[in-house]
């Protein structure tokens, strides 16, 4: 067995796994649709059982997490892979069938974010197995609700993933690949609902009576929109509801503030800032309630992840692959909690593509092979 043999085996298996990729994305599985997410999970479970890998399911009310383990009794430290099978669009918006392909690309829900990454993991494992690799356990953890915050109410799903990955030599999260790069750092996410109560009155009396909740919201939104530090804290207020009519001062207004941050210190600053904003009054008579609705920690830049990036780049250089530049990404992912759990972790090692979370999502078909060859080469040599 050699790296060349493993890569040749992945080439042989590629047509089969391209079809698996298409089939997986044709099973639409929007977040929080448990029936469909579990149907998707059972699809992957069947593949694992076909190979004779160990299979396990973590039951969850939002959709079950699937765990597939190859070489479970091998003595060396495990390698963990992960991707999520939930997608963002309602069923049917891509038409039927949801997936189409041309000579270069595959298009459809989740082709890059993140079912393509799961198929990279499956092809990696299948290629290693067929080539005779038995040195380490290789575990693929398939997340069910990443798009909604990975069990944000209880953290059940991401806690399960971190627990199953403990002791891993490396954890590779298979979000969409970035050209010639690997992610070592990500921003965290804080989402707040801001509810404002005013006093209704006829709009002609705005100088004497009433308290316009929409005006109070406007003042607060303008303050929040000042956070625009690309490398630090940003805030965007993109949803607002309030008022009854054009000639009535609004008695209620509600908006959502979405923060991104880089460090735990910044998260604490945001929490304190929102407490102060809650008590600040711009329009006399208005009251504000701030409710935290979502949270995902930052994947901070830590030495063990940088060292892992250096390790895989050395392996790539020795085996004819281009090196990957360590980068910082603005969006959140499960890699943050894995990093906090103390596991060496890198992100964005799935398929190449773009337009995630849109009706124009696509992935480059050949990147399935490239991603699997890179991962298999690392697993073989690390």
Backbone shape: elongated
CATH C-level label of the largest domain? Alpha Beta
Could you tell me the mean pLDDT? 96
Structural class: alpha/beta
Low-confidence stretches: none
Estimated radius of gyration: 23 Å
CATH topology descriptor of the largest domain:
Aminopeptidase
Largest sheet features: 6 strands, mixed
CATH architecture of the largest domain: 3-Layer(aba) Sandwich
- Summarize the amount of helix as a percent range: 25-40%
How many strands in all?
Answer: 16
Query: Which strand order spans the largest sheet, edge to edge or round the barrel?
Result: 1-2-6-3-7-14
Give the amount of beta strand, in percent.
15-25%
CATH superfamily of the largest domain: Zn peptidases
Order of helices and strands: HHEEEEEHEHEEEHEEHEHEHEEEH
Number of helices: 9
**N-C termini distance:** 15 Å
> How many domains comprise the coordinates?
2
Q: What is the strand and helix layout of this fold?
A:
Elements (H helix, E strand, L loop, with lengths): L2 H24 L7 H18 L2 E5 L6 E6 L8 E6 L15 E2 L3 E3 L7 H17 L6 E6 L12 H10 L4 E4 L7 E6 L1 E10 L15 H12 L9 E9 L9 E10 L2 H16 L7 E10 L6 H16 L6 E5 L5 H6 L4 E2 L6 E2 L7 E3 L2 H15 L1
Parallel strand pairs: 3-6, 3-7, 7-14, 8-13
Antiparallel strand pairs: 1-2, 2-6, 4-5, 5-16, 9-11, 9-12, 10-11, 15-16
Helix pairs in contact: 1-3, 1-9, 3-9
Structure description:
This protein is an alpha/beta fold and 382 residues long. The protein folds into 2 domains: 3-186 and 299-381, Zn peptidases (Aminopeptidase); 188-296, Alpha-Beta Plaits. The chain is built from 9 helices and 16 strands. The chain has a 6-stranded mixed beta sheet, with helices on both faces. The longest helix is centred in the N-terminal third of the chain and has 24 residues, at 3-26. The two termini are 15 Å apart. The mean pLDDT is 96.
């Amino acid at each position: 067995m050699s790296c060349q043999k493993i890569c040749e085996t992945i080439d042989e298996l590629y047509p089969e796994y391209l079809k698996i990729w298409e089939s997986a994305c044709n099973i639409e599985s929007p977040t929080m649709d448990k029936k469909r997410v579990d149907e998707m999970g059972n699809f992957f479970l069947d593949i694992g059982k076909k190979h004779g890998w160990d299979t396990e399911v973590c039951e969850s009310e939002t959709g079950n997490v699937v765990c597939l383990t190859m070489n479970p009794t091998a003595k060396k430290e495990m390698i963990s892979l992960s991707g999520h099978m939930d997608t963002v669009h309602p069923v049917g918006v891509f038409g039927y069938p949801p997936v189409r392909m041309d000579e270069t690309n595959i298009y459809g829900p989740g082709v890059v974010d993140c079912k393509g990454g799961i198929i990279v993991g499956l092809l990696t494992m299948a290629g290693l197995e067929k080539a005779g690799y038995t040195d380490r356990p290789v575990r693929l953890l398939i997340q069910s609700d990443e798009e909604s915050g990975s069990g944000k109410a209880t953290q059940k799903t991401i806690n399960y993933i971190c627990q199953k990955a403990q002791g891993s030599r490396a954890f590779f999260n298979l979000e969409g690949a970035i050209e010639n790069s690997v992610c070592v750092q990500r921003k965290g996410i804080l989402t707040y609902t801001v509810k404002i109560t005013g006093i209704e009155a006829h709009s002609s009396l705005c100088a004497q009576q009433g308290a316009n909740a929409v005006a109070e919201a406007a003042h607060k939104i303008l303050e929040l929109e000042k956070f625009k530090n690309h490398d630090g804290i940003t805030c965007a207020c993109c949803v607002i509801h309030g008022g009854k009519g054009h000639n009535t001062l609004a008695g209620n207004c509600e908006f959502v503030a979405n923060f991104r941050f880089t460090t735990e210190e910044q998260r604490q600053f945001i929490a304190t800032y929102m407490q102060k904003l809650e008590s600040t009054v711009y329009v006399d008579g208005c009251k504000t309630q701030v409710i935290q609705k979502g949270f995902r920690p930052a994947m901070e830049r830590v030495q063990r992840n940088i060292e892992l990036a250096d390790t895989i780049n050395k392996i790539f250089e020795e085996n004819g692959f281009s090196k990957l530049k360590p980068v910082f990404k603005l969006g959140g992912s499960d890699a943050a909690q894995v990093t906090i759990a103390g596991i060496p972790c890198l992100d964005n090692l799935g398929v190449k593509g773009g337009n995630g979370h849109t009706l124009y999502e696509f992935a480059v078909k050949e990147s399935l092979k490239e991603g699997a060859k890179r991962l298999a080469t690392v697993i073989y040599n690390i």
